[in-house]
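Checklist before submission:
- one chain only
- standard amino acids only
- sequence pasted in full

Submission:
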Amino acid sequence: MTYIDENRTRVSSETAYLTTDVLNRSNLTVVVDATVTKILFEKTGDETKTVGLEFAKSKTSCRYTVRVRKEVIVT
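Returned file contents:
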């Protein structure tokens, strides 16, 4: 979803969240042109939560698994 802000500038998820300050964080890696192959879930009692994901750059490339402490954002 995109919209135009009060300065008549187009705002997208990328420009709204991935600011220079955010991209310079040492605990963040942004991977582009990758495909999520699996979302990882864990069930504890009655609660199921997302704990990570698996992704690959292409059908024939290595698959990488990442686990998170807080949240998974897939766009």
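Reviewer check: The chain has one domain: 3-67.
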